[in-house]
């Protein structure tokens, strides 16, 4: 019950008690007054009748009856009795004086009159001839009293209604600042730092509002300061100060996570080296060398904007590294030539007088080794450097594998998967970090397709999905399949099923419409759904993410951010977007127990998330030491091969949890 309701009830009860007490007091005083008047009237009537009877000669019964009737017919008396000295009686009695009941029966039973019969002696000289007894009738008193009570009750009801209406208006006006403070506090939970401009005049309310404004300002400043500190730590730990690209540690960490991750990888690793850069640096000066490095970095960042899920870093000096997901060797060669063309026409064109070479290697499989991948890419770079002019060469290696698909064949395969619903799903459990029993928080969805009897992960086929502009269709297909599985295999827990959306889907209005239509088709299953996007998507699609959240949240669908800590956007987006959770990228969680500065970075991100009332999760964890470190850092949930591999059905997840508990 709100404070305003309590005030209203208390004040209303007080007014009702006052009015009821006043009414009861009026009834009591009225009854006493009427009772006194009735008894006085009976006494006066008895005295007057006795005096009249004393003048009747011989106490003639007929004359006495006439005198009694004259008094009784007035209707004010209930009983008139004359008793002679000889014991003979003349009496008149009436049960009611009015043709209708003077008042409700309950009123007459509650309000009673103590009527005392009045007696007077009939005397002739000093001789007593008899006694007259008179009792007043109460009907008229009840009638007048009931009319008075009704009038008082109507008046009291009007006063009560007017008082309550005025009270409601007064409390509404008084509690406006309190309601604004409540909205201000709730806005903090929604990551909206509101400051009240309308300061009330009442001293207590004014102090409360000013204190709340001061607290909001300090909380905002604390969050901004911690966010900036965490951003600075990320830059110092994983980024190159001169270029803003990932440094060698950051790039190798990201690449190693991709190669050793829980899912298959498919992409191209490229190494770039500017020829004779040390000599150029000595000849032209350090500033000229720094300018060249920054121009190369700008070109790579421009290329990265076109392939946002790629990774760019500076290894050392004029050596750079790039990694981009791709589906085949042909696609890898296209990306290699694209990066080469970007550099050859911008930072390292012929006018700079600097030559450069690119070496790349196509990486695909379940697991690979970072050192081996870098060695093969370096071999391709050395092969390119045998040419005097700038070249880009993809590493050649013999692999007994299926023949690669052409672009048209990829398009036909992906269309067939959509048309025939040949998309399969796997589910990776996200386990609550604290607690002895394994409690399921979420299920991450991994998609697979079949090609000639072999399963292909999203890392292998998704680049072609985006290249052929089928991302929205595949995302809708995944969501529909999840909804059907939930309908057929309902989850016994309240875990969310998290589906990663492509940035292309987020900005697609047609996808938004199809998504709403699908959610309306499965309203009960929608409450288990969570949609997440990679962190790099926030920079160019923040407005679309806000719109998407506004569309799906009324249906119980929540929004999250994946790959947190790998993007270049400031963490302040967490307070602007209507998020439910964030998921820290596995490249930051892997080997956490060995890196002190990385642990501090993780703790800072967790604190930022918790201050914004967000669920903070970690993925890609494989060893117990990293699980312990994440748990001590205060993370809410963890996923990775340490717990289990992905399951092919929801029933399999439920069975695994039951077996773990037992």
Features:
single chain; 662 residues; alpha/beta; 8-stranded mixed beta barrel
Q: What's the SSE blueprint?
A:
Elements: H1 3-53, H2 61-72, E1 77-84, E2 89-93, H3 105-110, E3 118-124, E4 127-136, H4 139-174, H5 176-189, H6 203-238, H7 248-259, E5 265-274, H8 277-284, H9 286-306, E6 311-316, E7 319-325, H10 329-344, E8 356-365, H11 370-384, E9 391-394, H12 407-420, E10 424-432, E11 440-451, E12 454-457, H13 458-467, H14 471-488, E13 496-500, H15 503-506, H16 509-521, H17 523-526, E14 529-534, H18 537-552, E15 558-564, H19 573-576, E16 581-584, H20 586-589, H21 596-611, E17 615-618, H22 624-632, E18 637-638, H23 650-661
Parallel strand pairs: 8-9, 11-13, 13-14, 14-15, 15-16, 16-17, 17-18
Antiparallel strand pairs: 1-2, 1-4, 3-4, 5-7, 5-8, 6-7, 10-11, 10-18, 11-12
Explain what you see:
It is a single chain. The protein is 53% helix and 18% strand. It has an eight-stranded mixed barrel, surrounded by five helices. A five-stranded mixed sheet has the order 6-7-5-8-9, with helices on both faces. The chain has a four-stranded antiparallel sheet with strand order 2-1-4-3, covered by helices on one side. It is rod-shaped, with a radius of gyration of 47 Å.
């Amino acid at each position: 019950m709100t404070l305003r309701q309590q005030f209203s009830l208390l004040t209303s009860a007080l007014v009702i008690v006052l009015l009821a007490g006043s009414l009861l007091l009026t009834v009591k005083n009225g009854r006493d007054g009427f009772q006194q008047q009735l008894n006085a009237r009976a006494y006066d009537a008895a005295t007057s009748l006795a005096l009249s009877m004393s003048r009747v000669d011989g106490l003639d019964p007929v004359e006495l009856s006439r005198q009694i009737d004259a008094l009784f017919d007035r209707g004010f008396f209930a009983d008139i009795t004359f008793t002679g000295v000889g014991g003979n009686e003349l009496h008149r009695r009436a049960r009611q004086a009015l043709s209708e009941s003077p008042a409700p029966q309950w009123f007459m039973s509650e309000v009673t009159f103590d009527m005392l019969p009045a007696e007077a002696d009939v005397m002739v000289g000093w001789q007593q001839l008899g006694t007259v007894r008179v009792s007043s009738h109460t009907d008229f008193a009840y009638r007048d009293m009931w009319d008075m009570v009704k009038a008082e009750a109507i008046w009291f009801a009007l006063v009560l209604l007017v008082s309550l209406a005025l009270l409601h208006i007064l409390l509404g006006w008084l509690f406006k600042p309190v309601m604004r403070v409540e909205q201000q506090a709730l806005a903090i939970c929604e990551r909206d730092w509101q400051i009240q401009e309308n300061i009330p005049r009442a001293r207590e309310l004014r102090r409360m509002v000013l204190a709340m404004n001061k607290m909001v300002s300090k909380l905002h400043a604390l969050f901004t300061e911690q966010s900036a500190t965490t951003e600075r730590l990320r830059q110092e730990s994983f980024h190159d100060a001169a270029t803003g690209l990932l440094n060698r540690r950051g790039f190798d960490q990201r690449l190693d996570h991709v190669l050793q991750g829980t899912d298959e990888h498919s992409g191209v690793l490229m190494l770039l080296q500017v020829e004779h850069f040390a000599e150029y640096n000595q000849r032209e000066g350090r500033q000229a060398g720094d300018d060249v490095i920054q121009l190369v970095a700008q070109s790579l960042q421009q290329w990265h904007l076109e392939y946002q899920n790629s990774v760019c870093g500076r290894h050392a000096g004029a050596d750079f590294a790039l990694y981009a997901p791709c589906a085949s060797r042909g696609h890898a060669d296209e990306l290699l030539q694209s990066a080469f063309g970007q550099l050859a026409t911008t930072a390292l064109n012929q006018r700079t007088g600097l030559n450069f070479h690119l070496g790349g290697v196509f990486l695909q499989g379940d697991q690979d080794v970072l050192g081996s991948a870098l060695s093969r890419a370096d071999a391709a770079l050395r092969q390119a450097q045998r040419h005097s002019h700038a070249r880009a060469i993809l590493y050649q290696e013999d692999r007994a594998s299926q023949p690669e698909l052409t672009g048209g064949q990829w398009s036909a395969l992906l269309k067939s998967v959509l048309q025939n619903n040949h998309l399969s799903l796997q589910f990776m459990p996200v386990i609550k970090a604290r607690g002895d029993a394994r409690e399921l928080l979420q299920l991450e969805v991994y998609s697979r397709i079949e090609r000639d009897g072999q399963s292909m992960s999203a890392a292998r086929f998704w680049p072609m999905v985006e290249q052929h502009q089928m991302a929205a269709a595949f995302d809708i297909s995944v969501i529909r399949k999840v909804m059907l599985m939930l309908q057929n295999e309902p989850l016994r827990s309240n875990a969310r099923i998290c589906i990663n959306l492509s940035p292309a889907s987020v900005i697609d209005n047609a996808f938004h419409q199809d998504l709403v239509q699908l959610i309306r088709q499965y309203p009960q299953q929608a409450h288990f759904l969570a949609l997440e996007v990679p962190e790099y998507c926030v920079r160019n699609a923040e407005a679309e993410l806000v719109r998407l959240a506004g569309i799906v949240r009324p249906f119980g669908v929540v929004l999250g951010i994946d790959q947190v800590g790998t993007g270049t956007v400031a963490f302040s987006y967490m307070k602007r977007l209507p998020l439910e959770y964030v998921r820290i990228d596995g490249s930051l969680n892997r080997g956490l127990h060995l890196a002190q500065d990385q642990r501090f970075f993780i703790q800072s991100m967790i604190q930022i998330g918790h201050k914004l009332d967000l669920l903070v999760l970690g993925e890609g964890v494989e060893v117990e030491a990293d699980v312990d470190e994440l748990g001590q850092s205060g993370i809410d949930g963890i996923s990775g091969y340490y717990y289990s591999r992905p399951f092919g059905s929801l029933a399999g997840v439920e069975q695994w949890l039951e077996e773990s508990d037992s």
